[in-house]
Amino acid sequence: MFRCMTLKNCIWSLCVMISVRAVYSCSEEPKIEEIMALDELRTEICPERTASNNANNRQIDETTFYLNDVRYKIVDSHLEIIGCEGILLPPEPKLFAEVKINGLTLKTLSINDYAFQRTECEKIVIPKTVTHIGKCSFGYCEFLTSIILPEGLEGIGFACFNHCYSLTAITLPEGLKELGDYCFQWCTALKRIKMPNSLTKIGIRCFEMCTSLTSVIVPEGITELSESCFYGCESLTAVTLSEGLKKISETCFMYCSSLLEITLPASVEYIDGYLCFVSFSLKTIYFQSLTPPVIEHVNGLYPYTTIYVPKESLDLYVQKYRGMFKDILPME
Question: Which string of b and e fits 252-270 if b means at least 16 CB within 10 Å?
Answer without folding.
Answer: bbbbbbebebbebbebbee
